[in-house]
């Protein structure tokens, strides 16, 4: 791949270019290239790996660089927040000064390396995407205000000031930043997030108007403050329909027409896309000026960790250029090796029974298997380690087992999107739909197989409610009284 720094003319802001055959597409599959200054161009459609506190789960930065082909990473600012955003008692405010978040004190390295890349040990070719909340976000009981949103940090609930988010985007030197959206969240039962029902029908008219006004104000603030920087802003699309949606998108389109608008759109959930697609232009539809922009899908639903490649193909068919896949890490932690391919989906190669999307490495039948995780896979794990080794690591709960599965699963998804792009480039939209239908018939629709407990997780990673995933680590050994008596007898003998 060509060095991004060798390009003769590098745009000052990220620029998205569609292939000529897909230039008129808005809510249909399309092929393009996302150029980011001094970074490896992102060929779309593709996925952006999610991080936890700045790192891809289970992988060190050197493993990412050496054994994956991931050229982007999403970082959530609420992962970087600690007591800075938490409320304090009046006494604490008098005794302690309010600390500055470390993300605002990052040393500035020499270009083209950004401060955030240097801090996270990312390569200078990696595109960094900053979001206010994790993907998917966890619920928080606090309401949003006119200048802040409620967040769920590693040490408790807090608020994120919009002004602080803008300062963090500038100080860290991120390539892309998703503007903050005023979307209320409500926790239910098992910790899922319900955003007001379908397309905001659960919110009052006054609350929906407030959502539009706040989101637009925060977008304008972020765009104006990053005008002189290379950071590209993605406007958050609200899960609204009708007049409010048309009003908000119309204002975003005006900003684009004035040459100071965002470089893309970020859809927080599928309701946002359905709200835009399901209405006519002028009544909530996507304006013409916004259709050529890159579109990002941030998985905002807690159920997104249970999504499958079938859902990803549906998102690509709906016009998303960049997607997030929380189910990659979920599969690795479950002990599953992904085993699907988009290149083998021809009508004449239909299987009698649908093939599984993943292989569970927990069953004892793999304890002596010298086969690779997936036949034909070119990842480091399949080239060096058999199934028996990974089975042993999972049985012993060695963290290397989840790391190897993460490397393999990332490569499978990378190859999956490579094949999707090849089909779009070669066969166009019609060929993509034929291959998608063949994929649907070839593979099962849901995940299956024996699931392991996975690594122990903190509460902020899984939310509240529901049954416990792990049992207690320590417990009483036999009868405590008998142990005391036995100990006393030993002491007497000594």
Q: What overall geometry do the principal axes of the alpha carbons give?
A: globular
Helical coverage, percent range: 25-40%
Using only C-alpha atoms, the radius of gyration works out to 24 Å
Q: How large is the share of residues in beta strands?
A: 5-15%
Arithmetic mean pLDDT: 82
Attribute tags:
494 residues, alpha/beta, eight-stranded parallel β-sheet, three-stranded antiparallel β-sheet, 14 helices, 34% helix
Overview of this protein structure:
- With 494 residues, the chain is an alpha/beta fold.
- It has 14 helices and 17 strands.
- The protein has helices at 61-67, 90-95, 115-120, 162-172, 205-225, 243-257, 270-277, 309-317, 327-334, 380-384, 387-395, 399-442, 459-462, 480-493; strands spanning 15-18, 32-35, 42-44, 46-47, 72-76, 127-131, 148-153, 156-161, 176-178, 186-188, 192-194, 232-237, 264-267, 294-297, 322-323, 336-338, 358-360.
- The protein has an eight-stranded parallel sheet. Strands 1-2-3 form a three-stranded antiparallel sheet, with no helix packed on it.
- Helix 6 (243-257) links the parallel strand 12 and strand 13 (264-267).
- Helix 5 runs parallel beside helix 6 (243-257).
- The radius of gyration is 24 Å and the shape is globular.
- The N and C termini lie far apart (73 Å).
- Residues 6-11, 91-96, 187-198 and 279-284 have low confidence and may be disordered.
Give the topology, please.
Layout: E1 15-18, E2 32-35, E3 42-44, E4 46-47, H1 61-67, E5 72-76, H2 90-95, H3 115-120, E6 127-131, E7 148-153, E8 156-161, H4 162-172, E9 176-178, E10 186-188, E11 192-194, H5 205-225, E12 232-237, H6 243-257, E13 264-267, H7 270-277, E14 294-297, H8 309-317, E15 322-323, H9 327-334, E16 336-338, E17 358-360, H10 380-384, H11 387-395, H12 399-442, H13 459-462, H14 480-493
Parallel strand pairs: 4-15, 5-6, 6-9, 9-12, 12-13, 13-14, 14-15
Antiparallel strand pairs: 1-2, 2-3, 7-8, 10-11, 16-17
Helix pairs in contact: 4-5, 5-6, 9-12, 11-12
């Amino acid at each position: 791949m060509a060095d991004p720094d060798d390009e003769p003319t590098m745009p000052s802001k990220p620029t998205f270019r569609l292939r000529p055959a897909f230039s008129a597409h808005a809510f249909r599959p399309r092929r393009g290239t996302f150029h980011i200054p001094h970074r490896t161009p992102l060929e779309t459609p593709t996925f952006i790996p999610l991080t936890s506190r700045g790192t891809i789960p289970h992988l060190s930065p050197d493993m990412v660089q050496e054994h994956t082909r991931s050229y982007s990473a999403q970082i959530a600012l609420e992962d970087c927040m600690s007591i800075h955003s938490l409320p304090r008692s009046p006494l604490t405010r008098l005794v302690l000064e309010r600390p500055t978040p470390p993300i605002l004190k990052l040393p500035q390295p020499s270009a083209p390396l950004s401060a955030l890349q240097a801090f996270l040990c990312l390569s200078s070719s990696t595109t960094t995407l900053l979001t206010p909340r994790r993907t998917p976000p966890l619920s928080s009981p606090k309401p949003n205000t006119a200048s802040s949103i409620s967040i769920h940090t590693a040490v408790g609930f807090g608020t994120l000031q919009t002004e602080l988010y803008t300062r963090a985007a500038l100080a860290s030197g991120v390539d892309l930043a998703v503007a903050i959206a005023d979307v209320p969240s409500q926790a239910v039962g098992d910790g899922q997030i319900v955003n007001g029902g379908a397309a905001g029908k659960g919110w009052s008219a006054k609350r929906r108007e407030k959502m539009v006004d706040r989101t637009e104000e925060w977008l304008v603030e972020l765009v104006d403050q990053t005008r002189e920087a290379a950071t590209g802003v993605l406007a958050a699309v609200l899960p609204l329909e009708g007049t409010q949606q048309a009003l908000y998108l119309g204002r975003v389109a005006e900003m684009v027409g004035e040459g100071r608008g965002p470089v893309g759109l970020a859809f927080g959930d599928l309701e946002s896309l359905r709200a835009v697609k399901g209405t006519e232009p002028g009544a909530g539809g996507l304006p013409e000026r916004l259709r050529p922009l890159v579109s990002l899908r941030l998985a905002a639903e807690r159920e997104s960790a249970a999504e499958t490649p079938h859902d990803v193909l549906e998102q690509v068919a709906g016009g998303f250029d960049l997607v997030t896949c929380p189910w990659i890490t979920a599969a690795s932690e479950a002990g599953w090796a992904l085993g699907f391919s988009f290149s083998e989906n021809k009508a004449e190669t239909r299987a009698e029974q649908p093939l599984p999307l993943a292989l569970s490495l927990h069953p004892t039948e793999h304890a002596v298997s010298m086969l690779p995780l997936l036949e034909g896979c070119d990842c480091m794990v399949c080239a060096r380690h058999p199934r028996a080794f990974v089975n042993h690591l999972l049985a012993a709960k060695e963290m290397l087992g989840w790391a190897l599965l993460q490397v393999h699963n990332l490569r499978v998804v990378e190859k999956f999107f490579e094949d999707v792009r090849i089909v779009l480039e070669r066969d166009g939209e019609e060929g993509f739909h034929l291959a998608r239908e063949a994929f649907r018939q070839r593979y099962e629709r849901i995940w299956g197989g024996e699931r392991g407990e996975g690594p122990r997780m903190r509460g902020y990673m899984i939310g509240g409610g529901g049954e416990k995933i792990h049992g207690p680590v320590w417990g009483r050994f036999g009868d405590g009284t008998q142990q005391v008596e036995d100990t006393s007898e030993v002491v007497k003998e000594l």
